[in-house]
Amino acid sequence: MQQEVDAVLEKHALFAIGRTGGERATLSMYDLSYLDLKGRNVTRIESAGTLFCYRNLPGAIFHGTTFHNTILENADLSGADLRDADLSGASLVDADLTGADLCGAILSKIDKRGAIGLPNDGGGGDWKPGD
User: Which residue among 40, 51, 55, 123 is least crowded, i.e. fewest CB within 10 A of its CB?
Assistant: First the structure.
């Protein structure tokens, strides 16, 4: 599965920077848990309803990405750039309040209506579940 996602994201990387041969990735309704997207540019990817549990996503770029109703429980989003992302209805914590790592993540201008486990101020930093 990692190789398939890597191939899709290679085309998406071209799309994200406006290059010929690029194609917007649509990964909605997939279980992408445990896969590695470290440092990837997934700007404006469509991933509504996707499972990103236990995902390795530090430093990934998610400008304008749709995470509507996505589950990001225990995902490593440290240093990720989520500006203008749609996190409405997303879940970042599991039943035990073990949450996604948002340390240093950029969360400006996100849509977090109905999201579970996001800090109230919309900023990144050292927020932990229960704060």
Answer: 123
